Amino acid sequence: MIYIVYPYDSSTEFLLKIPSLIEERHGSAFTMIKIEATDSSYASGLDSLSKVPDDSIVLFMGHGQSDLLYGAESSTFEKKKLIGKSEIKILSNKYFFSLSCNSNEFLHSTFNSSKIINSIGFGSLPTEMIEVENNNKLKQQGITESIIANYKNILVELVSTSFCDMIEKQQSFYELSNYFMLRLNKKISQVPQSLYYVK
User: Fold this and answer.
1) What pLDDT score does 187 carry?
2) Which pLDDT score, from 0 to 100, does residue 119 have?
3) Coil, helix or strand at residue 151
4) Closest by alpha carbon to 101, among 10, 5, 12, 190?
5) Cα-based distances in Å from 140 to 129, 136, 137
6) What does 2-40 look like in DSSP terms, one character per residue?
7) How far apart are CA 30 and CA 8, in angstroms?
8) d(CA 84, CA 88)
9) What is the DSSP letter of 169?
10) What is the pLDDT of residue 189?
């Protein structure tokens, strides 16, 4: 079974196209765990995650950094830690696809304690111009709003297509990982290479 975790954030709303596209092709092939910008929703979201059966696939779509994954935020509620090193065991005996910035570092640093079966993480995923402006390397690449928009569309297409194929062809998570990387390599020439870093 597939579980999709989405902490609400206006800057990541474009990622909601992923479950929409999966649902168009496969109906209720997944369970959605939405986390709103309240302390109670953070708690209920973690409770729902704790009840996910072993061997399930969890897709996290949100913000992250090298030592944690963030929860939801709003104009009146600042995002804060949802899953850190002390909570990572909630994903033990699961397959984990973390579509969030610097999740590769977080997953690598918690590999021994998390007991996650297998995972896919990412490096920097700049999806807003402010992230480009704060990164000298990206600024020098001449990244524009249109490039960012194309990049976001490619991310949605890669993830949704990979999950749809996994469902249709009854592929394993390992096959999902391999086919995702193949698709990524085919698409990588369409945007500046500095935008991609997958480990």
Assistant:
1) 77
2) 95
3) helix
4) 12
5) 13, 6, 5
6) EEEEEE--GGGGGGGHHHHHHHHHHSS-EEEEEE-SSHH
7) 18
8) 6
9) T
10) 62
Query: Is residue 72 a contact partner of residue 8, using CB atoms and an 8 Å limit?
Result: yes
- Residue found by looking up tokens 């005996």 in the block: 93
Pairing relationship of beta strands 95-99 and 118-120 according to DSSP bridges = parallel
Per-residue pLDDT at 191: 53
What one-letter code names the amino acid at 99? L
133 token code pair: 């402006």
Please, what are the averages of pLDDT over each run of 10 residues along the chain (199 residues)? 96 96 92 97 97 97 96 96 96 96 94 93 89 79 86 93 94 92 77 46
Q: Is 65 helix (H, G, I), strand (E, B) or coil?
A: strand
Per-residue pLDDT at 109: 94
Assign residue 63 a region (left: φ > 0; alpha: ψ between -120 and 50; beta: otherwise): beta
Residue 42 is predicted with a pLDDT of 97
CB–CB of 33/3 below 8 Å?
yes
- Distance between CA 45 and CA 25 in Å, rounded? 26
Q: Using an 8 Å Cβ cutoff, are 126 and 144 in contact?
A: no
- Are the C-beta atoms of residues 62 and 7 closer than 8 Å to each other? yes
Cα distance between residue 109 and residue 17, in whole Å: 30
CATH number of 2-195: 3.40.50
Contact, 101 vs 64, CB < 8 A? yes
